[in-house]
Amino acid sequence: MSPKDLKAALRNERLALRDAMPAEIRIEASLTMADHAGDVIALDPGHIVSGFWPIRSEVDIRPLMARLKSRGARLCLPVIMDKKTIVFRELLDGVDIISTGFGTTGPGPDAPVLDPDIMLVPLSAFDATGHRIGYGAGYYDRAIDRLRNKGHLPKLIGIAFDCQEVAAVPAEPHDVALDAVLTESGFRHF
Question: Which residues are part of a known binding site for substrate?
Fold first, then answer.
């Protein structure tokens, strides 16, 4: 099986496990994650943190984002610009939130575009070495590559439930490993 096919199989398997979690369990796990990492993620006031609003059965990191904002972080959300590109628009109080593609929502076009210092990255699966499988469209891989080409090296923190961990992700040369992962069991550095 090719790495691409293996990734697709692992993605489908782990997303099915995540989807099978009762909503109450996902909510409790999301709140637990905010407790695990709300004061642990290293940031200075003014650091830019990209988060995301949950789609489907994703972790709801809005409580974590609120905690980071209370510590002085500037927040932004991903916005799909075209079939290959996402940018990160600043999330400010009172800013309109609109549909931004792929089932996501985020700030409208009047919000400033920012380069995150810390990226809270959604994923389908991850392993103990920090490799991740995304949703298959490559948006985050390209965004990370674009930021790195500008000399910007954001800290990458994967966000997932424990059930999304796999024994090994078939890493390819273009894949970028995470710096850490946050699950309901805790915050792990790689």
Answer: 58
- The range of the structural domain enclosing residue 49 comes to 3-189
The residues with which 180 forms a beta bridge, in sequence order, are 157, 189
- Its pTM stands at 0.95
CATH of the domain at 55: 3.40.50.10420
Q: How far apart are CA 144 and CA 130, in angstroms?
A: 15
Residue 56 Cα to chain centre, angstroms = 14
Q: pLDDT, tens digit, for every residue of 58-72?
A: 999 999 999 999 999
Residues of the chain with pLDDT under 50: none
Whether 139 contacts 86, CB under 8 Å: yes
Residue located via tokens 């209370």: 70
Q: Tell me the binding residues.
A: 7-11, 58, 132-140
Cα distances (angstroms) measured from residue 110 to each of 14, 47, 52, 90, 184:
36, 21, 18, 10, 35
**Number of folded domains in the chain?**
1
Q: Residues annotated in the binding site for ATP, as ranges?
A: 7-11, 132-140
CA distances from 181 to 79, 91, 127, 151, 164 (A): 22, 23, 9, 23, 11
pLDDT tens figures, 79-104: 988 878 999 999 998 888 998 877 88
